[in-house]
């Protein structure tokens, strides 16, 4: 497998470790770390120090400070924390990572796709309402509809690749887009691009038709 170039951020891994993320984002993190040794190692570090950090937060009257991340990284770097060398979990074969296969009830053949026009298909995954998760299929060489975001959107490639503003994302790579980003990812011409996308706010599609259809499609 080719190396993964675009990873999860430390704050997202810490939030996952602290169990404060919406279910859809948990699914994204679990899926990425099942493919990515680097992020799984960082997550194990956060898991190891999590107890100590939370203990600090309980004894201090203020919430976790902005320095919490730096303090945590320093703790790991100091070598005082045994971060362990857990074995990598067994990887399920197929296009969908293990955690996604558990949601879908199988690999790609079990996905119930719905067409959203222009050859693009999606399958919404059942998660808690505070964020949404869906699988997207973008035909090779085709573009996602132009859209902005209300909240954070994370998109991980599972098959094929896409290019967004000159940056290439292949299997395992995660693009993190916030409400400032207006973008149009385009699938690479090699094969249809399949992604897991999670967002904590409804996307704001620009073209009239997608905007009308949005409440029905829930994208
Ligand atoms: Zn990673
Ligand atoms: Zn987007």
Ligands bound here? zinc ion
The coarse overall form would be globular
Q: Tell me the CATH superfamily of the domain at 105-217.
A: Jelly Rolls
Low-pLDDT parts are: none
- Beta-strand segment tally: 11
CATH topology of the domain at 105-217: Jelly Rolls
The description of the largest β-sheet is: 6 strands, antiparallel
Radius of gyration: 18 Å
- Work out the helix count: 6
Mean pLDDT: 83
- Spell out the helices and strands N to C: HHHHHEEEEEEEEEEEH
Outline:
The protein contains six helices and eleven strands.
Report on the structure:
31% of the residues are buried. The protein has a six-stranded antiparallel beta sheet, covered by helices on one side. A hairpin with a 5-residue loop joins strand 1 and strand 2 (121-125). It has a domain at 105-217: Sandwich (Jelly Rolls), CATH 2.60.120. The model has no long low-confidence stretch (mean pLDDT 83). The protein has helices spanning 10-17, 23-35, 37-59, 68-78, 98-104, 208-217; strands at 114-115, 121-125, 132-138, 147-149, 153-159, 161-164, 167-170, 174-177, 186-187, 193-199, 203-205. The chain contains six helices and eleven strands. The radius of gyration is 18 Å and the shape is globular. With 219 residues, the chain is of the alpha+beta class. The structure holds zinc ion (ZN) (2 copies). One zinc ion binds at residues 4, 7-8, 32, 36, 38-39.
Q: Can you give keywords for this protein?
A:
219 residues, six-stranded antiparallel sheet, 33% helix, 22% strand, alpha+beta, binds zinc ion, Jelly Rolls, 11 strands, single chain, 6 helices, three-stranded antiparallel sheet
């Amino acid at each position: 497998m080719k190396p993964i170039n675009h990873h999860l951020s430390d704050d997202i891994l810490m939030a996952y470790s602290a169990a404060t993320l919406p279910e859809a984002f948990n699914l994204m993190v679990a899926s990425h770390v099942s493919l990515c040794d680097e992020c799984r190692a960082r997550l194990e570090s956060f898991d190891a120090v999590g107890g100590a950090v939370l203990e600090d937060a309980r004894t201090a009257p203020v919430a976790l400070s902005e320095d919490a991340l730096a303090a945590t990284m320093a703790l790991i770097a100091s070598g005082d924390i045994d971060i362990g060398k857990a074995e990598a979990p067994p990887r399920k074969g197929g296009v969908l990572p293990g955690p996604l296969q558990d949601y879908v009830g199988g690999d790609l053949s079990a996905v119930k796709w719905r067409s959203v026009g222009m050859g693009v298909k999606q399958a919404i995954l059942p998660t808690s309402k505070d964020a949404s998760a869906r699988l997207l299929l973008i035909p090779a060489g085709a573009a996602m509809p132009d859209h902005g975001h209300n909240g954070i959107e994370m998109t991980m490639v599972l098959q094929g690749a896409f290019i967004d503003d000159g940056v290439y994302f292949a299997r395992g790579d995660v693009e993190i887009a916030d409400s400032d980003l207006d973008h149009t990812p385009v699938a690479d011409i090699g094969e249809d691009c399949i992604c897991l996308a999670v967002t904590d706010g409804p996307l704001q599609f620009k073209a009239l038709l997608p905007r009308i259809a949005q409440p029905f499609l829930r994208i």
